[in-house]
Each structure stands twice: as structure tokens, then as C-alpha cells.
Amino acid sequence: KENQKAKGRLAAGLLVNLAASICIVFLNKWLYVRLGFPNLSLTLVHFAITWLGLYLCQALGAFSPKSLQPAQVLPLALSFCGFVVFTNLSLQSNTIGTYQLAKAMTTPVIVVIQSVAYGKTFPLRIKLTLVPITLGVFLNSYYDVKFNVLGMAFATLGVLVTSLYQVWVGAKQHELQVNSMQLLYYQAPMSSAMLLFIIPFFEPVFGEGGIFGPWTLTAVIMVLLSGIIAFMVNLSIYWIIGNTSPVTYNMFGHFKFCITLLGGCLLFKDPLSVNQGLGILCTLFGILAYTHFKLSEQESNKSKLAQRP
């Protein structure tokens, strides 16, 4: 019975993450395209609501905050800020398909960063799976009808900063002995403060098109809803990885990736050429091969541990 309850909770967690992750992409795209809501201002709303949500979680006893020095969290807050801003700018400038595929480049970039900066070694078969991923992303982006240099620049910067952030999150959790909720609790307000200083240089604050501009009630509700969904995405990612493994979460991510691509074609009429279709298949093949090898690697590690006297 307990096992069934655990499976039920996991299924519920996966469904929440699936719905929230897909909703956030389409809702943000809608806010940019249809309403022209400023990008950085939306990111600020996401950070503020994420911090408010975490504050409520710790008040309800979901986790205990750990005392950290601001200097310890600063590089993470900067990269956290950068990765959300650049991925949102990429979503604003590219089709949903190109935006999603560019994110797949995070895996090869993380492997490069860990190899060069941290001296980590990877088996040859893992490295080989990065070839179809990279080739697929290139094919899709090159043949995208809405291909633009600015969009690609944002996507590239987004991938670099996201990869750095993910590497640092793992390293910092280990180094500071904190979980991701405790880390995010410090990161979100620090990133919000950084954005408060940055926004006036890039976007209007008051008046037409500004965060405090004359927005309709529908726009305000949509922006707040987007922030709540962003918090749910962050929380459900933490919960799924905590209750399963990063590999399970990645496997689930590929399923979301396919649905989001399909949704982009249907909702925003993002056209797909044959070459783009080939690019998507190529990337998916690489991602699935990578996940398969990672899974078998974990299984062999488990059996080695079990065999030890």
C-alpha cells in the first residue's frame, strides 16, 4: 500500500511538472508576442514570486533555511539571473522549436566545462552521443524560417550561462552542504535585487510598455500566473530529482520537449521544414542514447557497490 502511495505521489509530481513546464513556455511566449510585456520585468516577477513561495514553504516547515554568506551565493545569483534572462530573450526572438532545441546543447556544454575546468573524465560512448545532439540543433536552427542572428546569439549565451549555472549548483550544494531549496532561498532575492538595478537601463519602468505601465487586468493576472507557474516548475524539479534521480527527470524532459515542439507548431503556427524535422530526430536520438548510457552506467555502479563485502 505504501509503495502504491509513493507511486501515486510520484505520478502527481511528474504531472504537475509536465503541466507547469509546458504552460510556462507558451504563457511567456504569449506575453512577449501578443502583449509585448518586457522580458527582464517578467523575469523579476518570476524571481520575486519564487522567493515569496519559498518563504511560505519554510514558514510551513517544508525546509529549514541555512545561514550562508552573500559572497558564497553571488556567482550563482549572477549566473541564475543570466540564464533566465538569456533563455527568455531566446524564447522572445526564436520559434519555440529552436528555443527548445538550443536548450538541448546544455548537455554537451556541461560535459566540456566539467572536463576542462574540473578535470572530470567521460567515457567515449558518452562523448559520441554529443555529436548527433549538436548536429541536430545546428540543422534545426539553420533551416528555421525565423532564423535570426540576434536570436541565435541569445540562445548561445543562454546555453553557456545555463551550463555554468548547473555545474555551479551541483558544486555549491556539495561545497556548502545545502539542498537546492536552501540555495534557491538565497539566490532568488539576490537575483531580484540585481535585476532591479539592471531593468531601468534596458526597459521602461513606468508608462507604455513598462512594468508599472497601464496594463489591463488580464495582462496583470497572466503575469502573476506566469510567476506562480515558474515557482511550481522550480519546486517540482527539486521534488522529482529528490524522489527519483536526475536521469529520470531528464528522460521525462525529452517527453516535454516533444510536446512543446508540437504545441509551438499548433499554437504559434511555427512552421517545420523537412530538414528541421531531421534535426529534431537527430537531437532526440543523441539525447536518448546519452540517457541510455548514463542509466546503464548508474546500474553498473549500483551492482559494484552491492558486490562489495
Explain this structure to me?
- The chain starts with a helix and ends with a helix.
- Helix 4 runs antiparallel to helix 6, helix 4 (96-104) crosses helix 7 (149-176) and helix 4 (96-104) packs antiparallel against helix 10 (246-267).
- It contains eleven helices and no strands.
- The protein has helices at 2-35, 39-59, 70-93, 96-104, 106-118, 124-142, 149-176, 180-202, 217-243, 246-267, 274-307.
- One of its GO terms (cellular component) is membrane.
- Residues 19-290 form the Sugar phosphate transporter domain.
- It is found in: Membrane.
- InterPro entries: Sugar_P_trans_dom, TPT_transporter.
**Strand elements, count:** 0
What share of the residues lie within helices?
over 70%
* General shape: globular
Query: pLDDT average, as an integer?
Result: 78
Task: Report the β-strand fraction as a percent range.
Answer: under 5%
Give helix and strand order, one letter per element, not per position: HHHHHHHHHHH
Query: Terminal Cα separation, in Å?
Result: 33 Å
Structural class: mainly alpha
Low-confidence stretches: none
Radius of gyration: 20 Å
Major beta sheet, specifics?
Answer: none
Number of helices: 11
